[in-house]
Amino acid sequence: MENIFTDEYFMKKALQEAEMAFERDEIPVGAVVVVNNQVIARSHNLTELLNDVTAHAEMQAITSAANFLGGKYLKDCTLYVTLEPCQMCAGALYWSQISRIVFGASDAKRGYRTLGTQLHPKTEVKLGVLENECAVLIKNFFLKKR
Amino acid sequence: MENIFTDEYFMKKALQEAEMAFERDEIPVGAVVVVNNQVIARSHNLTELLNDVTAHAEMQAITSAANFLGGKYLKDCTLYVTLEPCQMCAGALYWSQISRIVFGASDAKRGYRTLGTQLHPKTEVKLGVLENECAVLIKNFFLKKR
């Protein structure tokens, strides 16, 4: 039997969250946290609705996953997020000691790699999963905003 | 008449918050946000109580100040924090476009300056205000923990 729980499978869940952000007129970024093929947290960017620059999808997902686990470290967890994390989110992921980060679209300007933010040495990163779908959603959002 | 609203004055308020964290067995870091000599947000580190790595004093202060102001940008605001912000908090401060950051003790290992986190170009920084008091509190905390 084929394993349906691929990185693409979970990135699609994150994309669904990003679409919910788009519908709410938020910059469309979505995230899920997965442990043992189970989604334990899902979130999307809510900076406008909450009037809060800290309300990025990843930040909410970290808080929510820790709440589910009953502990603040996200060992054995994977974060799927549609856009490369920023400095803030990468800094939060550092503290969480998360095992794995999978992101879709790169952010050449504000992404953590460009800005040199340090992740935890235990954290593995995979990028470019459903990259085009993730990027197109954000591009369409800003085209609509013009 | 002498102006009582000095940086030391507001850093003492942040120190009081740090002391509350100490009493709660949290790493003792406190913060206040000030606009026009008025404290609009106060907070201390709650990562243990909330089981949440994102619950640093600064993160809560940013959220709380934005809530008070009814807008997510902290223009004309000063954050006083007893310890140099980490990558996550500096990244959040970047997004907030805060006017000024004043911190007490430096954090040579995890501080944003060592790790090269970018602040907003509009943000001014002053460091070393009540440095010794801020540092001693943290040192005592870790001595107690041994």
SSE topology:
The structure is a homodimer of 146-residue chains.
Chain A (H helix, E strand, L loop, with lengths): L6 H17 L6 E6 L2 E7 L12 H13 L8 E6 L3 H10 L3 E6 L6 H4 L8 E4 L3 H15 L1
Parallel strand pairs in A: 3-4, 4-5
Antiparallel strand pairs in A: 1-2, 1-3
Helix pairs in contact in A: 1-5
Please, could you describe this protein's structure?
Chains A, B: It holds the Pfam family MafB19-deam. Chains A, B: Its cofactor is Zn(2+). Chains A, B: The active site is at 58 (proton donor). Chains A, B: Zn(2+) binds at residues 56, 86, 89. Chains A, B: It comes from Flavobacterium indicum (strain DSM 17447 / CIP 109464 / GPTSA100-9). 2 copies of one chain form a homodimer. Chain A has 146 residues and is α/β, with parallel strands linked by helices. The first copy, chain A, has a single domain (12-145), classed as Cytidine Deaminase, domain 2 (3-Layer(aba) Sandwich), CATH 3.40.140.10. Chain A contains 5 helices and 5 strands; from the N terminus they run αββαβαβαβα. Chain A has helices at residues 7-23, 57-69, 87-96, 112-115, 131-145; strands spanning 30-35, 38-44, 78-83, 100-105, 124-127. In chain A, strands 2-1-3-4-5 form a 5-stranded mixed β-sheet. In chain A, strand 3, helix 3 and strand 4 form a beta-alpha-beta unit. In chain A, helix 1 (7-23) runs parallel beside helix 5 (131-145). The longest helix of chain A has 17 residues, at 7-23. The model of chain A has no long low-confidence stretch (mean pLDDT 97). At the A-B interface, helix 2 and helix 3 of A face helix 2 and helix 3 of B.
